[in-house]
């Protein structure tokens, strides 16, 4: 699917504004890697970019590797926006979030938080 154009702040906002915020989102249901794209698109819509990056990074059976192996075939083919004009560029949005989080080293803080949570869970046992 079309994911060749990179996003900037404006085009990312424009693209996610096209999302219909579907109930029981077909894009998420269609994803074989369980990346739940509707969740990170919704986070962007509500100006929670950090939350979107966290979701894009943490969800999915292969986590960050999803974007490297995914062709966007399932989510974008299932996208209901295609009935109006074009599907949401889900794969490109996912790539943008993951690579941006890598560039901004957001993952380091995610990992630190996960480590603290795990330590607390172990202490509680
Ligand atoms: S199917 Fe398309 S329009 Fe619906 S939530 Fe997913 S990305 Fe948005």
Order of helices and strands: HHHHHHHH
Helicity, as a percent range: 55-70%
Give the C-alpha Rg.
15 Å
Shape: globular
Query: What's the tally of helices?
Result: 8
Q: What is the first-to-last residue Cα distance?
A: 47 Å
Bound molecules: iron/sulfur cluster
Q: Which class in CATH terms?
A: Mainly Alpha
The number of strands is: 0
The CATH superfamily is known as Alpha-helical ferredoxin
So, CATH architecture? Orthogonal Bundle
CATH-defined fold name: Fumarate Reductase Iron-sulfur Protein, Chain B, domain 2
Helix/strand-derived class? mainly alpha
Low-confidence stretches: none
Strand percentage: under 5%
Number of spatially distinct domains: 1
Provide mean pLDDT, rounded.
Answer: 84
**Largest pleated sheet:** none
Explained architecture:
By secondary structure, this protein is mostly helical. The chain has a single domain (9-124), classed as Alpha-helical ferredoxin (Fumarate Reductase Iron-sulfur Protein, Chain B, domain 2), CATH 1.10.1060.10. It is 61% helix and 0% strand. The chain has eight helices and no strands. The longest helix has 19 residues, at 106-124. The termini are far apart. Bound molecules: iron/sulfur cluster. Iron/sulfur cluster (SF4) is lined by residues 19-22, 25-27, 38, 41, 78-81, 88, 90.
């Amino acid at each position: 699917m079309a994911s060749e154009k990179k996003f900037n702040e404006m085009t990312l906002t424009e693209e996610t504004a096209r999302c219909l915020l579907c109930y029981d989102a077909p894009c998420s249901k269609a994803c074989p890697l369980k990346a739940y794209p509707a969740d990170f698109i919704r986070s962007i819509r509500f100006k929670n970019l950090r939350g979107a990056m966290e979701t894009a990074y943490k969800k999915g059976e292969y986590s960050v590797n999803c974007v490297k192996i995914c062709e966007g075939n399932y989510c974008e083919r299932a996208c209901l926006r295609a009935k109006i004009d074009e599907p949401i560029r889900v794969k490109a949005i996912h790539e943008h979030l993951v690579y941006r989080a890598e560039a901004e080293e957001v993952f380091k803080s995610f990992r630190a938080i996960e480590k603290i949570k795990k330590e607390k869970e172990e202490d509680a046992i």
